[in-house]
Amino acid sequence: MKRLWPVVGLLAALTTTGAAPTGGAPTVRLDWADGWLYASGYAPASAHDQDLGVHRAARLAAESEALAAVERLQVTADATVKAFASVSEDIASDVAALVHGARMVSQGPVGDPPRWQVTIGVPLRSAAHGESSLAQILLPRLAALQAKAVAAQKRMDHEKSNFRMMGEGDAPKGDEPSAPPPPTKALPPRRPGPYTGLVLDTTGFHLQACMCPKIMRRDGSEIWGTVDVPPPFVLEHGIAGFVYDLDVALGDQGRTRVGDNPLVLRAVGRQGAVWANAILNDADASLLAAENANSRFLDKFAVEFVIDE
């Protein structure tokens, strides 16, 4: 199973498995394992396959789909790419340029009657050949703009839903049910440290994934997640990984991130405007802090979240 990064509030056509989109209505697919967002656009096919006007129309449709999808991506639990772009002209310009310069993945006639399909790829993490990426645009500016972006997101959400805006002094909402849902799989017996990473099981809570997830205490304080200056590793691999299966996190694929002896913990709740942050109980929060002090695996971003499909 691939390591995937699900998207909050993307288009209904969004898929997270398989190859780049082919056929059908305009589609978007996010593949966090490879660090790419794929988008397809269509135009009525010409009798002449080399009709540049048709090719251009399909390319523009694909770029429009990609930009809409990128804007909806969660950067943090409380702000989307669109919110960050709304408070920074540089981010807005760079994101638009990233999509406009997206790599051509495939093109050709599809369907009956035939339409011309163009599929493009937008890099989410550091790309090869000197290409820019969404992580390179956003993460270095995250600390400076996060407060403004969260405020902008609240305004946008309020305008969309007409719900009450959260006041400046309010804390992000948290959800810790009195009867937590059972995990999809039983956690393995805990092995002794030192630990090489963290596997955090959140199954049953339907945690959403984002570029910058956090791990929180019950009192609302942060254990881990804030990154002031992202190192090259984060730009290339992300702050954390996301998988749908505990066995995958503990298997060969998971070891590439969390090592051979990860600490395995179970979340007791979720937090954030879109439920993207995990809450630990007090005992596990203290254990995590103590074990990280020994081997600094959190500082190395050796973190894997197990989430629901």
Could you please describe the fold and organization of this structure?
The chain is α/β, with parallel strands linked by helices and 309 residues long. The protein folds into two domains: 28-159, no CATH class; 174-306, no CATH class. The protein is 31% helix and 21% strand. It contains nine helices and 15 strands. The protein has helices spanning 52-72, 81-86, 89-100, 134-138, 142-161, 232-237, 246-250, 252-258, 282-295, and strands at 28-31, 36-44, 74-76, 79-80, 103-110, 115-123, 174-175, 197-201, 215-216, 222-224, 241-243, 262-266, 269-271, 277-279, 303-306. Strands 7-13-14-9-10 form a five-stranded mixed sheet, with no helix packed on it. The longest helix is centred in the N-terminal third of the chain and has 21 residues, at 52-72. The chain is globular and about 65 Å long. The protein starts with 27 loop residues before the first strand and ends with a strand. Residues 1-19 and 162-171 have low confidence and may be disordered.
